[in-house]
Amino acid sequence: MPTDPAIHPHQILTTPNGERVEIDDAMVPIVRELWRLGFTTTGCCQDVGEATAGVRAQRETPLGYGGDPFIDYHRGWALLKLPIPDAMRLLAMLADVPTFRDRVRDRWRPGSWRMNVPLEPDGLADSALLHFRQQQIPELTDTLRNQ
């Protein structure tokens, strides 16, 4: 199955398991720190709305998602996709950091993270989707570096 072209500038990194993957430039420092701390990542994006709009514009066939309201809502939101145990461990760690405490504990405050685990016919997906404002990327990177 062909994959969509990368929308954001990216780097090719080698995962701790030896796989070569494309990582959006803005997400590289976060992903490297997560790997250093023993987390597994299964996906990331530095601006979900922009990426969705870019993919949609380049495809001849519809995405099946990503209408204008989806794109508008997700502009400026970064994404980390982690296996559920790693996502829970990351959130527990961030819940003890003053600058992230309210962002990960109270989803309705300005700057709060949007987090979900998709439902599948057989139960929950294996990975959680953690969305946060892309302006938090440098702060998250610094927080991870200090762990």
Question: Can you give keywords for this protein?
Answer:
single chain; 147 residues; alpha+beta; four-stranded antiparallel sheet; two-stranded antiparallel ribbon; 6 helices; 8 strands; 37% helix; 23% strand; globular
Structural notes for this entry:
- The chain is an alpha+beta fold and 147 residues long.
- Helices cover 37% and strands 23% of the residues.
- It has helices spanning 28-36, 48-58, 68-74, 84-94, 98-105, 137-145, and strands at residues 10-14, 20-24, 43-45, 77-83, 114-116, 119-120, 123-124, 127-133.
- The strands form 3 sheets. Strands 3-4-8-5 form a 4-stranded antiparallel β-sheet. Strands 1-2 form a two-stranded antiparallel sheet.
- A hairpin with a 2-residue loop joins strand 6 (119-120) and strand 7.
- Helix 1 (28-36) runs parallel beside helix 6 and helix 2 runs antiparallel to helix 3 (68-74).
- The radius of gyration is 15 Å and the shape is globular.
In angstroms, what separates the terminal alpha carbons?
Answer: 39 Å
The biggest beta sheet, please?
4 strands, antiparallel
Q: Note the quaternary state here.
A: single chain
Beta-strand level of the residues, as a percent range?
Answer: 15-25%
What integer is the average pLDDT?
A: 92
Instruction: Output the helix-strand order.
Output: EEHEHHEHHEEEEH
Residues in helices, as a percent range: 25-40%
Major sheet strand order: 3-4-8-5
* Total beta-strand segments: 8
User: Which of globular, elongated, flat, extended, rod-shaped describes the shape?
Assistant: globular
| Tally of contiguous helical segments | 6
Spans of at least 5 consecutive residues with low confidence = none
* Structural class by SSE content: alpha+beta
- Evaluate the radius of gyration: 15 Å
